[in-house]
Amino acid sequence: MVAREPIAITEFALATCLGAGGRVHAEALRAGRSGLAPCEVYDTPFTCYVGAVPGLEDCAPPSELEAWDNRATRLAEAALAADSYGRRVTAAVCRWGPERVGLVLGTSTSGVEKLETAYRARRGEEPLAAEYSMRRHNDHHAVASYLMTRLGLAGPCWTISTACSSSAKALVDAHQLISADLCDAVVAGGIDSLCLTSLAGFEGLQLISRKPCRPCDAERDGLSIGEGAALLLMERAADGPYRLSGAGENSDGFHMSTPPADGAGAAVAMRGALAAAELMPSDVGYVKLHGTATPANDVAECRAVAEVFGATTPVSSLKGAVGHTLGAAGAVETAMCLLALEHGVIPGCVGLRRVDPAIACSVPDAPQAAALKHVVANAFGFGGNNCALVLSR
Amino acid sequence: MTLRAVVKTAGFASPLAPDLDAFSVLLGGGHIQAAPNWNPTLACLTAREARRLSPHTRLALSVAEQVAPALPEDAGWVFASSSGEGETLQVILEAISRPDLLIQPLRFQNSVHNAAAGQWTIAARRQGPATSIAAYDETVGVGLLKALMQVALEQRAVGLIMFDGPLPPPLHEKRPVDCAMALAMALAPASTAASGDLAVIEGRLVDEVPEPLEPPDNASAGCFAETGNPIAAAVPLLSAIIGAGSAAATAHVIRLGVGGSRALHVSVEPVA
């Protein structure tokens, strides 16, 4: 992407059902491990597997910020603690000054889990509990506001909520904030927690699998919901090892929850990302699919990938490993792609047994060693909202 | 980098003033009969299709329609709203409070913050990039900042849509917004300014925590601020943009919060 000087991804941290931090995720990528398990967080009237982040009971916000406590801010805390990310951001704030460090966070549901609890506890038409605060607990911007306060940032700050493409787009806005010289560094990422709204909503769409999801598999029958937090740090003129070197954003203009069968919008997004990065399709060593494991989505996306990259570029979905982390997916899976770049591994498509014959892409079922320089990461959301990123080492 | 854009046209919708002309009358000190039960009519959808959308989404689409003719096919769309889909949120919260957890599929897909952005691109068959952003009481400032950034960096025309409306009880008392409001601007790279355009705006960030809302120019304008609607923060800006096209135009500077301790200073000038 056009930038007067290099902008690097200098730090990142993530927490998913696989655990917290880079090491556990790199090991899981190499081993092809899944963190999906039968749902225990909620007693749902339907069977499902979820990717629940372990140990959130020990991730309460610091006491002075306990009024912000909810599952989403606990996920934020899990990411801040991972790999000393929080301390590294503090160092960046010292380096650039707080007013030059911004924050862009992608989330689909923010802290709605807290509001669900408040509604379920409510009797009849009585008001919500006095201690419930929309601003701190559930507003779309609640988690971003929490992180601004928590990290002592004073730059521009907003929340992107375009469903499952939210946090991929947050990374694009972070890059733009630095390119436009409005910030020197930006904390960018995504956070979404498990909640009944997502579980019951996708069940209502008949898109929840009864088993751990199996992206690209001939017998795939829906998704597994996950939760996660991934925070990256982008900095100006830094010689960090990773870059967001291109992005393509567009709209299908077709349907709220189904892509066109040929994946036309997805193809435009990927071509746009390649053009912005000034790369040829053959420069890309791996395409990280959005890969939700619904029958319609995977085949449409793979048609688009095959059209842009041909049939030989390895592709896989990470959702068999961490579930669909919804608004956090773009950032969570970007962080996993950075680990793939660092460790030279093409992630296997966890859960895959037999590739759908309708998919004309090369989908490895197990991880493969490979020296990667550029990878493409897709994130698509409700509303036909598409975002493709090029991540480079 | 200079964040400069030309405002090709603008739109407004609210029960307080159903369109931009009525908004101008109010701002000019005139009287518009408030119509609490007013609802926008949409040209881009059939009445039947429109009924499936929430009032907030219909409101957003109505101002998008007002500015769309001034924007090319590849325009970007920035939808800025603090609450997004309040009414659908309420329906879903009630559904998940029942043991069967049954949520209607249409309700769920329209519950996302970008329901308005998505429904707009579908209804208008627009395939440019669309985003949906929120920042509580600073939603207007960040919406404009993102739009200006996109115009300048991508050299692309952008439709900026800002909207919020009342939440149903019991959410209302936690976020009191008394009246719906939506406004829109068609922005384009400043190099494309032409006669008939409304104004040229330029934004820069300064270290200053701004006042939450600019004091209204007159008593009529005060009615917008009193609604508690975060989109009212854009009323002075829209007023200056409309004024920039008048014979007695002078340059204005509007201040908007964008998070942290930074403020966006927006200068509004007549088209040269």
Task: Record keyword descriptors for this entry.
heterodimer; A: 393 residues; alpha/beta; Peroxisomal Thiolase, Chain A, domain 1; 2 domains; 12 helices; B: alpha+beta
Describe the fold and architecture:
- The complex is a heterodimer of chains A (393) and B (272).
- With 393 residues, chain A is α/β, with parallel strands linked by helices.
- Chain A has two domains: 7-236, Thiolase/Chalcone synthase (Peroxisomal Thiolase, Chain A, domain 1, 3-Layer(aba) Sandwich), CATH 3.40.47; 243-392, Thiolase/Chalcone synthase (Peroxisomal Thiolase, Chain A, domain 1), CATH 3.40.47.
- Helices cover 33% and strands 21% of the residues of chain A.
- Chain A contains twelve helices and 16 strands.
- A six-stranded mixed β-sheet of chain A has the order 2-1-9-7-5-6, sandwiched between helices.
- In chain A, strand 1 and strand 2 (19-20) form a beta hairpin.
- In chain A, helix 1 (22-31) packs across helix 12 (329-343), helix 7 (166-179) crosses helix 12 (329-343) and helix 9 crosses helix 10 (295-309).
- The longest helix of chain A is centred in the last third of the chain and has 15 residues, at 295-309.
- The radius of gyration of chain A is 19 Å and the shape is globular.
- The model of chain A has no long low-confidence stretch (mean pLDDT 96).
- Chain B has one domain: 3-Layer(aba) Sandwich (Peroxisomal Thiolase, Chain A, domain 1), CATH 3.40.47.
- Helix content of chain B is 31%, strand content 22%.
- Chain B has helices at residues 20-27, 47-51, 55-67, 86-96, 105-109, 115-123, 139-154, 219-225, 235-244, and strands at 3-13, 76-80, 130-134, 158-164, 181-189, 199-207, 252-257, 262-269.
- Chain B contains nine helices and eight strands.
- The mean pLDDT of chain B is 91.
- Chain B is an alpha+beta fold and 272 residues long.
- An eight-stranded mixed β-sheet of chain B has the order 3-2-4-5-1-6-8-7, with helices on both faces.
- The interface between A and B is large, with 74 and 70 residues.
